[in-house]
Amino acid sequence: MTEPQYEFYELTDKYPAFVGGFGTGKTETLANCAVRDALESSSALIALYEPTYDLVRLILAPRMEEKLSDLGIRYKYNKQENIIYTSSGQCGDFVLRTLENPARIVGYQSYRAHVDEIDTLKKDQARLAWQKIIARNRQQPAGADPLNRVSAYTTPEGFRFVYDTWGRNPKPGYRMIQAATYTNPFLPDDYVDSLRDSYPPALIAAYIEGKFTNLNSGSVYPDFCRKLNHTDEVEREREPLLIGMDFNRLKMSAVVYVQREGVPVAVAEITDGRDTPYMANLLKQQYADKGHPIQIFPDASGANSSSKNASESDLSILKQAGFSIRVNSRNPAIADRVNAVNALILNGQGERRLKINTNRCPHLTDGLEQQAYDKNGMPDKSSGVDHLNDAAGYPLAFLYPIVKPTPTQTQDLRI
Q1: A Pfam family for this UniProt protein (predicted)?
Q2: Which domains does the chain have, with CATH numbers?
Q3: In sequence order, what E strands does 83-193 have?
């Protein structure tokens, strides 16, 4: 174990939390502690929780199977019940559940519980899930330590549930170990540098240092600078264009990008478009008819209905106009889109990879400077500067996404 992992493993508090950056071994620590608890009694039931079923299936269950196999503990994983049954006379069983619907955390009693990434939930949902988990954690298996413990493992996601519970003014029994990414010697030598390349400075403290930091207040794009992110570049003859588009009747917006040396350059903007047919015709006249190949990265909700005719989707109109459409089935999470843009505006290495011709994109420039978060921690839409910002973000989140490393990507590195 790393030093923070071992320090956490040795805690005897009733409600410990392991709060760390990426690669600090949260899932590895969870698995080690869960098996330790199960070995206290063959009748013990250890409850393991992930935010979603996909995380149970892709990360938690495989890691527990790997851990049991390494220890020579025979088991059977019932995927329908999501229970790992062991056949050892010295080891209990494991029930795997999600946090998506806290009201469903019923019907069983656990001896110990381990909760992964609880801070990714909304604060109220996380608090309700924690209360439900504690209520179920009352089993007293024969021969086991009478202490019913619930442990949490998470990346800090701003000042949310984990900060309120363990960071601000913890109650008796609540103890927190914080770990930075670079405390794990099993990681590749360039792992931390690669994170610094990918993340904006505002996220470095949380996702590398494992510290609580304000991810929501103030400016949505705090590091944008109209001078430092400026370029005089324009589109060249017949150059391929990447166009982000946001659908809003009478407020249609688009940002035109080119790629230079693998990085995006915004060379034009379109604001206050009437509807999708209008935008399609405008793009054909200004660009397609002049020989520019066009790929459009639209708002995914445009697959549902048209800004002009409810029987014809916005995406269908664009396809019929001859444009190549690149879009997923749903939009990325707002935070993921914003983080992708911010990482291009300025990353942890001080590089500004997103360039904008501020003379040709004056409204986008204003929007990046002015958009703030509202009282609910979401990008404010009341000022009217959000449409171009949204349009600008769709191609950036699609082509330059921030991918959070998962334990399955580097299991041998014990992250």
Answers
A1: Terminase_6C
A2: 3-215 (3.40.50.300), 241-399 (3.30.420.280)
A3: 83-86, 93-98, 112-116, 150-154, 174-179
